[in-house]
């Protein structure tokens, strides 16, 4: 399992599944988890480690170069768009397929 986590962390991929994200979070690997949903959606419930940078504000955001970037939204569509935008800026990021609609663990915020 450790080798699998290393390959997830050190080898940038276009996308990973929710279960792969869970493994990364469980390993406490340093990463930037960016939730690109609207502020309202984010407040209704998000992954504890996620930072909210709505897709519309992504172009003006700054990121820590030393940590990999993972992008999540509700279904994976907006995070894929965010990934493409960051790639145009020369920033490598990984999309979380399925997004929050596939997240089954506890969330922060919301009801």
Q: What does the model show?
A:
This protein has 111 residues and is of the alpha/beta class. The protein has one domain: Oxidized Rhodanese, domain 1. The chain is 32% helix and 14% strand. The chain has a five-stranded parallel sheet with strand order 1-5-4-2-3. The longest helix has 12 residues.
Topology readout:
Layout: H1 2-10, E1 15-16, H2 18-26, E2 32-35, H3 39-43, E3 51-52, E4 69-72, H4 77-88, E5 93-96
Parallel strand pairs: 1-5, 2-3, 2-4, 4-5
State the main characteristics.
111 residues, alpha/beta, Oxidized Rhodanese, domain 1, five-stranded parallel sheet, 4 helices, 14% strand, globular
Portion of residues in beta strands equals: 5-15%
- The helix count comes to 4
Amino- and carboxy-terminal Cα gap = 34 Å
The succession of helices and strands, N to C, reads HEHEHEEHE
Q: Low-confidence segments, ≥5 residues, pLDDT <50?
A: 5-10
What is shown here, in short?
The protein has four helices and five strands, in the order αβαβαββαβ. By secondary structure, it is an alpha/beta fold. Mean pLDDT is 89; it is low at 5-10.
